[in-house]
Amino acid sequence: xxxxxxxxxxxxxxxxxxxxxxxxxxxxxxxxxxxxxxxxxxxxxxxxxxxxxxxxxxxxxxxxxxxxxxxxxxxxxxxxxxxxxxxxxxxxxxxxxxxxxxxxxxxxxxxxxxxxxxxxxxxxxxxxxxxxxxxxxxxxxxxxxxxxxxxxxxxxxxxxxxxxxxxxxxxxxxxxxxxxxxxxxxxxxxxxxxxxxxxxxxxxxxxxxxxxxxxxxxxxxxxxxxxxxxxxxxxxxxxxxxxxxxxxxxxxxxxxxxxxxxxxxxxxxxxxxxxxxxxxxxxxxxxxxxxxxxxxxxxxxxxxxxxxxxxxxxxxxxxxxxxxxxxxxxxxxxxxxxxxxx
Length: 342
Fold this sequence. Notes:
- The protein has a five-stranded parallel β-sheet.
- It has 342 residues and is α/β, with parallel strands linked by helices.
- The protein is elongated and about 70 Å long.
- It has two domains: 2-129, Oxidized Rhodanese, domain 1, CATH 3.40.250; 136-338, Rossmann fold, CATH 3.40.50.
- 33% of the residues are buried.
- The protein contains 17 helices and twelve strands.
- It has helices at 7-13, 25-30, 44-57, 59-70, 74-84, 99-110, 121-134, 150-159, 167-171, 189-202, 225-233, 243-254, 259-268, 270-273, 275-286, 290-309, 325-338, and strands at residues 2-5, 19-21, 36-38, 89-93, 114-118, 139-144, 163-165, 209-212, 217-218, 221-222, 236-240, 315-319.
- Helix 3 runs antiparallel to helix 4, helix 13 (259-268) packs antiparallel against helix 15 (275-286) and helix 15 (275-286) packs across helix 16 (290-309).
């Protein structure tokens, strides 16, 4: 049986049922529902062939070409669907809920599956997420100079029953010229939005959400502008950690990093550091003086942070004398309660 479902019902059912994405592999790679499995009715080359036929020959010839490509693979589709969904109940979508998912839904229905077909397809899912980014959220922003340990606090805040989203984890980037070091390849901006939107949908909208302060770009991905604008206008708790502790923390993080990666990171900010500082930083890397390299890099990042902080509307300063994330999370919560943020 094929049952059309709304995006809300689709996402609810996705908590327990397999999700099959009938779009081509390249479409899936650009962005997909995080729990979805790629289940393409056409390869990238086959999709291009059908699309070209539709453009130059019209609907009917394109459909016939599509059926020629689809037919020989039908039995394999059913076998693979049975492997992914032993209970023979699946969620299915394509780009707009059109012919691709319709054909796959017909086949699986014929094979005895219960198919929940997303009305409007992946396009409706994307629209649903953008609505989440535009609606008001109760956000609390953790800010502070580079090396203050902001990201490290988030899991400890969650241990105290606070809601938190690690944007840098979703983006696979730490948000600076050094941010890609030790990280997996970044998702596309589209898929980053999918990951972020999925996190937001899981949260209680009546409770605040802690986020680390970020610019609109985290490496190569972009935060949704309506959501970023809300971050800029939200209460910001600035962690004031002594520079010596920040230098110590970052030195420990980068002391085992490949020198070529550190050199490339310094060269990315060469114009902002200036020729002399860049030369000294590169020399420090070569001589394994990571503390000096970190201190030079912080001279740039601290200035940039000061400028960005000036754009905030509601800023509260919290002095800390440690970089212990568990202790600092407790202090942040006490501070937030004192200022009636939570």
